[in-house]
Amino acid sequence: MKYISMGTQQIDEVMVETIELESKFLKRTVRIDFYQPEEADPAVEPRLLLMNDGQDLVTMDFEKMLQPFYRNNVLQPLLIAAIHSNADRKNEYGMSEGPDYNGWGSKAPAYEQFVIHELLPFIHTRFH
Description:
Helix content is 31%, strand content 31%. The protein has helices spanning 54-59, 62-71, 89-92, 108-127; strands at residues 3-11, 14-23, 28-37, 47-51, 78-83. It is globular, with a radius of gyration of 15 Å.
């Protein structure tokens, strides 16, 4: 699977790595920010939280919100994958059975395939 690491930041107890993943299902490059504690125990398999609209977490200073939880081991072990949307978000998000009454969600089946067949295998490979 083709991906590009856009870099890693450490903000106190939080490590944030940005990846761009090529999706054949969505026919676009998907940016994902991975948030994890700085001191993750490699012997413990982390839980996974997938979040849509990952670009909004950047403007919310999400890593600063996580700091006290990671510092106090409230969320450990937890890996958060914040998936950035694009201008076509209303079509990518929705029910995989088909579009809603406004026709939105027409690409939801492709988004589901991206998550199941591209994102999750990448996460298992990259983060064990």
